[in-house]
């Protein structure tokens, strides 16, 4: 007997006026982890990123994540590989209590200008459960084999 998977969390979405003709974020394949985000820049006003340039690109929607979830804004591998364009603060975190427009900070690390046009898929959004923690100050931490070794201490 196959167990019934849990119901998907519901995310309420508001399409903003400047994105009326754009589709809402969607999964592009059956097993995709991320929903594609599209640029809601004006049709007659694309954003050009010179080499080293960055810009906050609007997506045209706001959302209400359920408590206990976050959304991570991540780069699209094709843009990174082909053009050197990536998400500057990857992954960008969208908290469950944020209600403003989702924006994507893009940076052009490539050698040529890159133009972001209306409706272009610019990033992906991964919604994932997250837990808050409590901090407790102690005199010392429990020992592990690794200890305080970091930044390559476990090998290349």
TrEMBL record:
<feature type="binding site">
    <location>
        <begin position="76"/>
        <end position="78"/>
    </location>
    <ligand>
        <name>substrate</name>
    </ligand>
</feature>
<dbReference type="GO" id="GO:0006226">
    <property type="term" value="P:dUMP biosynthetic process"/>
</dbReference>
<dbReference type="GO" id="GO:0000287">
    <property type="term" value="F:magnesium ion binding"/>
</dbReference>
<dbReference type="GO" id="GO:0004170">
    <property type="term" value="F:dUTP diphosphatase activity"/>
</dbReference>
<protein>
    <recommendedName>
        <fullName>Deoxyuridine 5'-triphosphate nucleotidohydrolase</fullName>
        <ecNumber>3.6.1.23</ecNumber>
    </recommendedName>
</protein>
<feature type="binding site">
    <location>
        <begin position="93"/>
        <end position="95"/>
    </location>
    <ligand>
        <name>substrate</name>
    </ligand>
</feature>
<comment type="function">
    <text>This enzyme is involved in nucleotide metabolism: it produces dUMP, the immediate precursor of thymidine nucleotides and it decreases the intracellular concentration of dUTP so that uracil cannot be incorporated into DNA.</text>
</comment>
<comment type="pathway">
    <text>Pyrimidine metabolism; dUMP biosynthesis; dUMP from dCTP (dUTP route): step 2/2.</text>
</comment>
<keyword id="KW-0460">Magnesium</keyword>
<dbReference type="InterPro" id="IPR008181">
    <property type="entry name" value="dUTPase"/>
</dbReference>
<keyword id="KW-0546">Nucleotide metabolism</keyword>
<dbReference type="InterPro" id="IPR036157">
    <property type="entry name" value="dUTPase-like_sf"/>
</dbReference>
<feature type="domain" description="dUTPase-like">
    <location>
        <begin position="23"/>
        <end position="155"/>
    </location>
</feature>
<feature type="binding site">
    <location>
        <position position="89"/>
    </location>
    <ligand>
        <name>substrate</name>
    </ligand>
</feature>
<keyword id="KW-0378">Hydrolase</keyword>
<dbReference type="InterPro" id="IPR033704">
    <property type="entry name" value="dUTPase_trimeric"/>
</dbReference>
<dbReference type="InterPro" id="IPR029054">
    <property type="entry name" value="dUTPase-like"/>
</dbReference>
<comment type="similarity">
    <text>Belongs to the dUTPase family.</text>
</comment>
<keyword id="KW-0479">Metal-binding</keyword>
<dbReference type="GO" id="GO:0046081">
    <property type="term" value="P:dUTP catabolic process"/>
</dbReference>
<dbReference type="Pfam" id="PF00692">
    <property type="entry name" value="dUTPase"/>
</dbReference>
């Amino acid at each position: 007997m196959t167990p019934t998977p849990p119901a998907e969390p519901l995310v309420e979405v508001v399409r903003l006026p400047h994105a009326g003709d754009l589709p809402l974020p969607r999964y592009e394949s059956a097993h995709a982890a991320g929903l594609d985000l599209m640029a809601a820049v004006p049709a007659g006003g694309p954003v050009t990123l010179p080499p080293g340039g960055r810009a906050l690109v609007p997506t045209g929607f706001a959302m209400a994540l359920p408590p206990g979830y976050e959304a991570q804004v991540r780069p699209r591998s094709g843009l990174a590989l082909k053009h050197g364009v990536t998400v500057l603060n990857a992954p960008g975190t969208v908290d469950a209590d944020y209600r403003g427009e989702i924006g994507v900070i893009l940076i052009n690390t490539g050698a040529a200008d890159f133009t972001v046009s209306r409706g272009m898929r610019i990033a992906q959004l991964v919604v994932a459960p997250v837990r808050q923690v409590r901090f407790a100050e102690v005199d010392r931490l429990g020992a592990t084999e690794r200890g305080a070794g970091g930044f390559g201490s476990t090998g290349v």
